[in-house]
Design brief:
The structure holds 2 protein chains of 2 kinds. Chain A is mainly α. Chain A has 10 helices and no strands. Chain A is 74% helix and 0% strand. The longest helix of chain A is centred in the middle third of the chain and has 34 residues. Chain A is elongated, with a radius of gyration of 20 Å. Helices cover 32% and strands 24% of the residues of chain B. Chain B has 2 domains: 217 residues, 3-Layer(aba) Sandwich (Rossmann fold); 64 residues, Alpha-Beta Plaits, CATH 3.30.70. Chain B is an alpha/beta fold. The chains are: A mainly alpha, B alpha/beta.
Chain lengths: 259, 332
């Protein structure tokens, strides 16, 4: 698989998408920081024009625990969209650029090619989560948020990384959508449908049994009154990721590649 | 990995037996049997939709057959068996490349996936891509993109080269270059070439054996050197009195077709071999020819006639020409 990994890494390095996704995660972190800035002192925010005259903000507390929880929610919800796009690009581009054919009859197996793509996707997701966490901590320090503690920061950072990992796992089936759909379009449609459905199902209270709602629930997006998804929900997410990866590999090996 | 071209001419490099691929009611490839031997340049001719690309994808394990078997370099072809692929280079349908990578990087990706050591410099030079080596593929012309795709197929000097419409997008000079390159690979390196094309004249210049596909079936196979035997020839002549000329020719044992306003037509082998004797007979008979042409069916007409006869006889007639049978429409 080493050869396939090298090839996938080169393709990713030459693409603009890593920078675009880093920018998206950077902006998300800045927005979370700005939210804390507003929440800490609404009058000051009004003076800066960051908050409308009659707007009221409630929810997270303007302290480190609240800020880290907000970042975890950004990783969970934003992560599904961004990681989904990464997976769609990794697989869909081979069909949109008509290069898939050149990967099918080689000494390197199709399974190795698929595994290399998922590996690059996982590394990419990890780096973005680290960016969100690192930049988030830096912005939090600059804002001089109250309630800092080293164990609290470690726990909060761990929650961000875990939420990102759950979101990344739920993005795996999009590889199959991009492969079966032979390009970006169908897979992006599936991604939109998943994001929309996950919101609706979570709002109806069944989020713990819908894998794409689980990362958000895990990050506490439903508020302190909601139960976390539990082990069953987390297992469902893991099963979704594994099933997505395996079915994609099976499809690449068994499907008729007519394009 | 080193790829020794096969020099054992007796060993089939490609062995396709009763191969079929159906999509519901449509037979994209229907009961095709053929063999390609080491060092041959086998060209598959056919109209658009004849099944050439499907056959090539079946050959490369990209599509699973619904009937029959394929062996490449002695190994049975299936998606999971990669035994042969290290010694096969291929280009299927339109040339493609990663647009954000340079020509050299595109070849490096292919080299890595083929587990080849060294650099791509040699193949870049052979395909005249040196001026474009550091250019991103998205900026290449169609012709240079085709060269890049061919370079990728030739990276490892394969024992078998499978090319689907290899000269698409190339200008006449590029076509001649690729023709010379493929001929050199076959003759000097023993590489077997299996290609599909709709360019009849190009195929006639390059191929050592030609298969004609129509409606998913192989309707004829010919050794390129013997193609002339299968192309129709006739002697067309005109005189001031074609009716009298007709009688004179019959008296000399020829079998002219009934006179038409365009003149008389002779297809006797004797007449085609020695047209001057026909002229002599007419002069002695008092009806000297005013016009005399030995006309030969061109490749295009031959191809369309082969395809047309297949169309008339239909699939039930079993006109496919298979190795060892030699009874197809094309060989008839």
């Amino acid at each position: 698989m080493r050869e396939a990994l090298w090839a996938e890494l080169l393709k990713a390095r030459r693409s603009r998408l890593p920078w675009v996704t880093a920018l998206a995660f950077g902006v998300a972190t800045l927005v979370c920081g700005m939210f804390m800035f507003i929440l800490a002192d609404p009058a000051r925010a009004r003076a800066f024009g960051l908050l409308g005259g009659k707007a009221e903000i409630s929810g997270a507390g303007a302290d480190w625990p609240g800020y880290l929880a907000l970042l975890a929610q950004a990783a969970a919800v934003g992560g599904l969209g961004v990681y989904g796009l990464i997976v769609v690009w990794l697989f869909g581009r081979e069909f949109s650029d008509r290069t898939a054919t050149d990967l099918l009859a080689l000494p390197t197996s199709r399974t190795a090619v698929v595994a290399a793509k998922f590996t690059i996707g996982a590394i990419w997701a990890l780096l973005l989560a680290l960016l969100l966490t690192g930049l988030g901590l830096l912005i939090g320090a600059l804002l001089a948020l109250p309630g800092w503690s080293a164990p609290g920061a470690v726990q909060g950072s761990g929650r961000i990384m875990a939420a990102a990992a759950l979101a990344a796992l739920t993005a795996a089936p999009l590889a199959l959508a991009a492969s079966v759909g032979r390009g970006y379009l169908a897979a992006v449609g599936v991604l939109f449908a998943i994001v929309f459905t996950s919101q609706v199902i979570a709002a109806l209270g069944y989020g713990a049994v819908f894998p794409w709602s689980v990362p958000g629930l895990f990050a506490g997006i439903a508020g302190p009154g909601q139960d976390p998804p539990g082990l069953a929900g987390l297992a469902l997410v893991a099963a979704t990721g594994v099933t997505g990866a395996i079915t994609t590999a099976v499809w690449w090996n068994r499907a008729d590649h007519t394009r | 990995m080193t790829n020794r071209p096969l020099r054992d001419a007796a060993m089939p490099v490609i062995e396709i037996v009763h191969l079929g691929k159906r999509y519901r009611d449509v037979a994209a490839v229907d009961d095709v049997t053929l063999q390609v031997r080491a060092g041959q340049i086998y060209a598959l001719l056919g109209l658009n939709g004849a099944g050439k690309t499907t056959l090539i994808r079946l050959l490369l394990g990209m599509i699973a057959p619904t009937a029959g078997t394929v062996r490449v370099l002695g190994a049975a072809v299936s998606a999971g068996d990669r035994a042969a692929w290290g010694r096969v280079g291929y280009l299927v349908e339109a040339a493609a490349a990663y647009p954000e990578l340079t020509v050299r990087e595109n070849l490096d990706v292919a080299r890595r996936l083929r587990r080849l050591p060294g650099t791509s410099d040699d193949v870049i030079e052979r395909l005249a891509l040196t001026p474009y080596a550091e250019r991103r593929a998205r900026t290449l012309s169609l012709g240079n993109l085709q060269r890049l795709a061919l370079a990728r197929a030739l990276l490892h000097t394969p024992a078998l080269l499978v090319l689907d419409e290899p000269v698409n997008g190339l200008d006449p000079a590029g076509v001649a270059e690729i023709r010379a390159l493929l001929a050199d690979l076959a003759h000097q390196h023993g590489t077997t070439v299996f290609l599909s094309s709709h360019l009849l004249a190009e195929v006639a210049r390059l191929a050592t054996r030609i298969g004609i596909m129509h409606d998913g079936r192989l309707v004829g196979e010919h050794d390129a050197g013997q193609l002339d035997r299968h192309r129709r020839r006739h002697l067309r002549l005109a005189t001031h009195d074609d009716a009298a000329a007709h009688a004179v020719l019959r008296a000399h044992g020829y079998h002219p077709e009934p006179a038409t306003p365009a003149g008389l037509l002779l297809t006797d082998e004797r007449a085609l071999a020695q047209p001057e004797r026909v002229a002599t007979a007419l002069v002695h008979g008092g009806v000297p020819p005013t016009d005399l042409h030995l006309q030969e069916e061109d490749l295009e007409a031959f191809f369309l006639r082969t395809v047309g006869s297949s169309r008339k006889t239909g699939p039930e007639a079993g006109t496919g020409t298979y190795p060892g049978t030699g009874t197809g429409a094309g060989d008839a």
